[in-house]
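Good morning,

Attaching, inline, the backbone tokens for the sequence recovery test we're adding to the shared suite. The designed sequence is right after.
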């Protein structure tokens, strides 16, 4: 299956194979073959070229390719993969060290959370209180999956900051692969074309091909059937937001308390919004806690809209049993931890979910 081919590809790259070696070429060939098998269609020459660029091309950078980070069975990377990688793997580069300036870099965060460091310029109206001259922020973030997303999502990246897949590929090439040879517009188009052929299942492929919505499974066991009620319709606890073919409202950004709770323990900053007329700064307030401190304020760094403070793209729930870890900071390592998070969030909203509720929701999510 397609997801198996991505896993094979990822492990070959993580094993430290050099670009152009037979194992890399074989993995690219297998990726192409399995992509064609999964969709039942032959890739075009442009898509095939894109697959090879995705798997093999470093653009004379630090040794990373697209496949270095987009590796697992859902098109991203897991802590387990990183922990299993040899120290020579291109995943271990100083730019993602615990302290990139250290002469002896360590990679504890990368191994624990599989988060890479992302530097983002602040919008003109967003400031860090106490540091008015600081105009960019570096935050640890999960690698967003490209499976299903490339073909079906309208929001690219966890904060929606990239307008196109081509722009995202170029940005990643510079920020994470430190390329010294510029990708051409044609190569970026080829990579994007290939990524649009990556699907988690036949159901999501049909959704992209002809708009056939996979719908919600009925559930077989009593627990699964009870869990379905959490997702069945816009009045349900989870279905209020998890709607549409990928159950993510097209990637609409939403604050679900992850930054506010900060279970990853990342460094926090005090965020404010500046009045363009007067220059006065007002602290921002999280929708749930009212706190202006956050390790990563999310989509507001793209939009400058205070309503987007601590909001992030809703990711697809399809294939969720295979897409751990979860959230923009990978702070939930299991579905059980996801439900613990929501129990805490729902408690702030005035209602409680029981241990049985959590177990039922997990049982159902494993069917998606």
């Amino acid at each position: 299956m397609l997801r198996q081919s991505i896993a094979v590809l990822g492990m070959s790259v993580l094993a430290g194979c050099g670009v152009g070696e037979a194992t890399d070429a074989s993995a690219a060939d297998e990726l192409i073959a399995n992509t064609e098998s999964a969709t039942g269609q032959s890739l075009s020459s442009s898509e095939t070229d894109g697959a090879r660029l995705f798997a093999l091309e470093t653009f004379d950078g630090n040794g990373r390719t697209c496949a270095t980070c987009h590796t697992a069975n859902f098109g991203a990377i897991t802590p387990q993969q990183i922990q299993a990688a040899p120290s020579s793997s291109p995943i271990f580069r100083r730019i993602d060290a615990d302290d990139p300036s250290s002469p002896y870099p360590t990679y504890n965060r990368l191994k624990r959370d599989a988060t890479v460091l992302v530097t983002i310029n602040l919008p003109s109206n967003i400031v860090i209180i106490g540091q008015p001259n600081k105009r960019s922020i570096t935050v640890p973030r999960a690698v967003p999956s490209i499976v299903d997303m490339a073909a079906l999502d309208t929001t690219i990246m966890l904060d929606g900051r990239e307008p196109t897949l081509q722009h995202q590929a170029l940005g990643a090439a510079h920020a994470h692969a430190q390329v010294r040879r510029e990708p051409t517009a044609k190569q970026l188009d080829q990579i994007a074309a290939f990524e649009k052929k990556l699907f988690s299942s036949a159901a999501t492929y049909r959704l992209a091909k002809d708009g056939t919505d996979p719908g919600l499974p009925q559930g077989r066991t009593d627990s699964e059937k009870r869990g379905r009620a959490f997702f069945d319709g816009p009045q349900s606890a989870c279905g209020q937001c998890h709607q549409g073919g990928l159950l993510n409202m097209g990637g609409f950004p939403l604050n679900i308390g992850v930054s506010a709770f900060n279970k990853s323990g990342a460094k926090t900053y005090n965020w404010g919004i500046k009045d363009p007329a007067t220059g006065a700064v007002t602290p921002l307030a999280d929708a749930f806690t009212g706190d202006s401190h956050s390790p990563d304020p999310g989509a507001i760094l793209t939009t400058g809209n205070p309503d987007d403070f601590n909001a992030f793209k809703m990711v697809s729930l399809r294939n969720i049993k295979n897409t751990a870890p979860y959230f923009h900071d990978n702070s939930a390592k299991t579905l059980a931890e996801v439900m613990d998070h929501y129990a805490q969030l729902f408690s702030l909203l005035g209602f409680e979910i029981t241990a049985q509720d959590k177990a039922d929701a997990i049982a159902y999510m494993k069917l998606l």
